[in-house]
Amino acid sequence: MRELSIYIHIPFCVRKCLYCDFLSAPAGRKEMESYVNLLLREIEKQSIFYGDHTVISIFLGGGTPSLLSGGEVERILARIRKNFIMAPDVEITMECNPGTVTPEKMESYIASGINRLSIGLQSTEDEELARIGRIHSYGDFLEIYELARGAGFGNINIDLMSGLPGQSSVSWKKTLERVTALLPEHISAYSLILEEGTPLYVNQSGYTFPTEEEDREMYALTGEYLAEAGYCRYEISNYGREGLPAATIRFTGREAITRVLDWGHPPWLTTCAGKIRRTMRPMRFVWRAGNGGKCRYLRWKSRWRNLCFSACGLCGVWIRKNLSVFSESPWRKSTGSSLRPLLRRACFFGTRAGLR
To answer: Of the candidates 217, 229, 313, 232, which has an alpha carbon nearest to the alpha carbon of residue 271?
Structure first.
């Protein structure tokens, strides 16, 4: 049996962050329910092409997947199990943001088989969070982290971001110190990129950003500090705590016999709205254990097999019919422009013959 990984895109959020150019926007319950119903049909529709594949990982990303009800998440995963062959140790990851998760939702995540959470924090400094339009505080993050641990999650990733407006090496190190003290299994540390059309890009003259030299200092500090704290880089922006058993690192592949899942290697089935550039990266840096316990970097070219489907069929129709959900969001009020150009750039349609 060939291996397959599934990415599910949930294009909804409470409010667009000022740096975000992903396909996501605020929406009401009616739009979310409509989208989920079409998503369920799309999963079943695409499954006929993958009868000879075994699903080894599922990733629910967004947007903010945790905006969905616990029941909706359970329905999505149940539909995948019904239509695909699942590996016994399949890893199921879900992104969630502080302020969108309740104890009841957390219990339903466990019940539905989710065994890895990726929590968006970005910074432990409330002032920095406010400048980039996050809806939560550091205290809100701590609540969701403790809630996840209490519910039984033993595999958690925390997303961080350097190069933020008003951020310094001192405040960035403070964020790293606070996060590593929590001992998450994974840490993703990205550098801010000003994407054209986002509020931060449009209004960048109104912010004070770190200089290029300061940004390089923070990048270097990230690797050095996390290495000292017992985290090894296994991908360009991702770090994992050393000594974890193989069962907790299936998705990221940090073990003696490593297989990091490149976007498209092994094949990914991407259902619903997503970004082609997120599924066709030309090169990845991965980590393999061994070699005396030291980190070693491997490189290979992505192998694109025309097996990624995004915004195809029924869900593509949903996106086209509901463009107003996105274009009438607070994004327009923040930037004075429409989200439509970003949506056109973000969507693509897949067919058995290729992409169009």
So the answer is: 313
| Distance of alpha carbon 66 from alpha carbon 105, whole angstroms | 8
Q: What are phi and psi of 189, to 5 degrees?
A: -120, 105
pTM score, whole prediction = 0.76
For residue 262, what are its two tokens? 């490149």
Q: Which of 116, 83, 55 shows the shortest CA–CA distance to 307?
A: 55
Mind listing the pLDDT tens digit of every residue in the chain (356 residues)? 788 888 898 989 999 999 998 888 888 999 899 989 988 988 898 888 888 899 999 999 989 999 999 999 999 999 999 999 999 999 999 999 999 999 999 999 999 999 999 999 999 999 999 999 999 999 999 999 999 999 999 999 999 999 999 999 999 999 999 999 999 999 999 999 999 989 999 999 999 999 999 999 999 999 999 999 999 988 888 899 987 644 344 443 322 222 333 333 455 565 544 333 233 232 222 222 223 333 333 232 232 222 233 333 344 444 444 444 444 444 455 455 554 554 444 333 333 333 23
Side-chain-facing half-sphere of 135: CA atoms under 13 Å: 15
Contact of 132 with 89, CB cutoff 8 Å: no
CA distances (Å), 309 to each of 6, 140, 305, 338, in order? 10, 35, 11, 26
- Where would I find the H helices in the chain? 29-47, 70-83, 103-112, 126-131, 138-151, 169-181, 199-202, 212-228, 313-321, 323-327, 330-335, 340-346
Q: Which residues are bridge partners to 285 per DSSP?
A: 299
User: Count H helices, E strands: the chain?
Assistant: 12, 13
Cα 147 to Cα 134: distance, rounded to the nearest angstrom = 20
Asked, as a colleague might, if the bond just before 165 is cis with ω within 30 of 0, I would say: no
